[in-house]
Amino acid sequence: MREVPAVRLSPFLRSFLRSEALSGILLLAAAVAAIALANSPFKDAYHHAAHLPIRFGTGALAVDATLAHAINDGLMALFFLVVGLEIKREFLTGELSGRGAAILPVASACGGAAVPAVIYAAFNAGTPAAHGWGIPMATDIAFAVGVLALLGRHVAPVFKVFLTAVAVVDDLIAVLVIAFFYTSGLDLRALAVVAAAFAILLALNRAGVRALAPYLLVGAVLWAAMARSGVHATIAGVLLAMAIPATGAETSPLRRLEHALHPWVAYGIMPVFALANAGVTIPPGQAGDMLASPIALGIALGLFFGKQVGIFGTAFVLGRLGIGALPGGARGRRSLWGVALLGGIGFTMSLFVSGLAFRVEEMTDVSKAAILAGSLISGLAGAAVLASVRAPVAGDEVAG
Predict the structure, then answer these.
(1) Domain span holding position 161
(2) Does the reported pTM lie above 0.90?
């Protein structure tokens, strides 16, 4: 690959990476706690808590749910709102705002999403588990960035920017997959309310309304209608994000809302989601059987092999063709490989899609175990490869 100019991380991206690194540590602690609870004498209470009844809203927009649904459909709507804000910011003013800058991470993310899905399908085509092809497609930015933070100067800034951009595009792909492929029977009346609410949000944007309260109020109606529509309720968060005005740099409504919500999502909602969803009970002596099933092999191999082949292969080929630019030489290729391996840390989005894909508890447990195994192996392998680089790539000495 050809040489590129030195890259310096912007203050915003530096702050973003630090917050995601801490979020990754909290996610890990929550996941460990969930697994410990699910395999302890308190496992029945842990699993029972997910089914506690909860009611949202009143009247025609009332939604009856369980604690698990409140977390996965309610709190995670805020997670998807932040994801939507990050996607919009990156494409408007961030690392994906320029056509040339966006080609490499966008193409690499697409490759990194497609290859794992193909690997999963190869193991599960024609079976009841075939619907889980979307599980190994996503990258967990918090965990991946957490590993990068531990490696410090072993990773040149250009690769931190590259992984962040790939993860953002990955999130966009995951949102589209959820919206189009993981929906139930559609309620046309509820969808009409969704369309009307979204139209009002766009009208507020066009009218130059910069106060956040009107957007959030209409957004709440949008979420309630989406929850009844058959399209997953969290997509409401992304639609709301698309309507938030982004003009005005640091003072824009988008940036203000992102700054306000990001700590709550990164340090609260995501760890709560992990605590509620990562707990898989593994019967004594059956771990090997679980991980040897086609579901587990499709997910774990999709995350570990699929991600590195899709991301590294796409970036390497485009680099050879002169499309996009990352540092060349052996160290550059090794860093790219290490970052591609970190892309195999699926976790949050993979667990989320798993809950949508499977309704049978045994299948969900197997998929969770495979997500944890594939993510752990990918993280350890990526860290080992990046740690072996020893020094920043020439031309990218500036640390983040």
Answers:
(1) 11-387
(2) no
